[in-house]
Design brief:
Length: 392
């Protein structure tokens, strides 16, 4: 394939990626993704325009097809890296990428004004582009151990292509007339092929990663209560299932605690649902502060939460429940119209070898009802586990 044809393919390829992003759908409110997509779209637009100008070299004035086109090209690759870092949750454009871009542009334009040779100018642009491509690979490589196969593939392939782009610049500079069977045209062609693969990898790889991240977020929201950030009913039951299976084996027991806010309906009726939401958030935070990292908090609905305490005997579960009760009692919620005092009734039980989810929750709920019947703001164990409630 001729070099000019490769340049045209780069221009049209970047343009097609711009069109693909225009029709790319993402959920409303995904601010980080939208910001990264906007940066990535600008990168594609700059690169498409830059390669278009390079393709028209000899037709348009040199200042458009050489310094101006390369400035756009370098800016496009810098924005490519910025978009990947924004997707990774960090904005490094002003602190790191912009200074490198300005230095690279100044070096290239200076070399053109001083009428340096084309190989010298190509070496400058290749080194700068290689740096930006490697910077993008650095963003993709964050969290390598937990990364997906797609992300790992993109990291490795991007690093290899960055090295190929840098090698092209160095070979053009050090061997302007070629070496043995390696002609200058072959070096140029291989360099452009590497840039074409970078375009494809960064382009479709970026879109696939965005799609993958949004899919992961949707899957997370299926099991997470967005208000309290605790597991929802479905997520809590999923977390509970393996512990029910382990309960059939001898070993330390696992406990379940139901936490039910006293008079939560009255809070919603008297102060409104916004105040009720504030109460639920405060309640979740108070519970989490009393739990270990291995414990699991779930929001079952309304003012009812559940706590899974792995490898915890009943006496220890009652102590944890009492700490939770005490933390709620000393944490009033400042709503718009009033200060709302929190109290809760808690019921605790431990798993048995023959337990099902229904049976386990029934025992914990019966213990919670026992605490509520005794006046609320109390902790109780199921009658089969312990007869008397632990008073506040």
């Amino acid at each position: 394939m001729e070099i000019k044809t490769l340049v045209l393919a780069l221009a049209l390829g970047n343009l097609s990626l711009c069109v693909a992003l225009f029709f790319f759908e993402q959920p409303a409110g995904a601010a980080t993704a939208a910001r990264g997509n906007a940066t990535w779209a600008r990168a594609r637009q700059l690169q498409a325009l830059a390669w278009g100008l390079v393709y028209l070299r000899g037709t348009l004035p040199d200042f458009l097809t050489i310094p101006f086109a390369n400035t756009l090209l370098l800016a496009g690759f810098a924005l490519d890296a910025a978009a990947l870092w924004e997707q990774a949750g960090r904005r490094i454009w002003r602190r790191y990428l912009l200074p490198v871009l300005l230095i690279a542009v100044a070096a290239f334009v200076g070399a053109w004004l001083l009428q340096r040779t084309p190989p010298e100018r190509q070496a400058i642009s290749s080194l700068a582009i290689g740096f930006f491509v490697a910077a993008g690979a650095g963003a993709l490589g964050r969290g390598w151990s937990a990364g997906t196969l797609l992300r790992r593939y993109l990291v490795v392939s991007t690093v290899v292509l960055a090295l190929a782009v840098v090698a092209r610049g160095l070979l053009v500079l050090l061997l302007p007339n070629g070496w043995s069977w390696v002609s200058p045209e072959l070096v140029q062609g291989m360099g452009l092929v590497a840039l074409y693969l970078v375009m494809l990898g960064n382009g479709f790889g970026y879109l696939l990663l965005v799609r993958q991240r949004l899919q992961n977020e949707l899957e997370r929201l299926e099991v997470i209560d967005p208000l309290t950030s605790a597991l929802n009913r479905r997520g809590f039951h999923q977390a509970l299932a393996p512990w029910l299976a382990l309960a059939r084996r001898p070993g330390q027991p696992t406990a379940l605690v139901i936490v039910d806010l006293d008079d939560f309906k009255r809070v919603n009726d008297h102060y409104g649902h916004l105040a009720g939401d504030q109460v639920l958030v405060a309640m979740a935070h108070a519970c989490k502060r009393q739990l270990r990292d291995s414990d699991t908090l779930g929001h079952l609905g309304g003012g009812e939460f559940a706590i899974l305490l792995p490898r915890t005997a009943l006496d220890d579960a009652l102590l944890v429940a009492e700490r939770v009760r005490g933390a709620l009692a000393v944490q009033p919620v400042k709503a718009e119209k009033a200060i709302i005092n929190l109290t809760a009734s808690l019921g605790a039980t431990t798993m048995r070898a023959d337990d099902t989810t229904v049976g386990l929750f029934q025992r914990a709920d019966l213990a919670r009802q026992q605490a509520r019947t005794a006046g609320g703001n109390q902790v109780a164990a199921h009658a089969a586990d312990r007869a008397a409630p632990l008073d506040a």
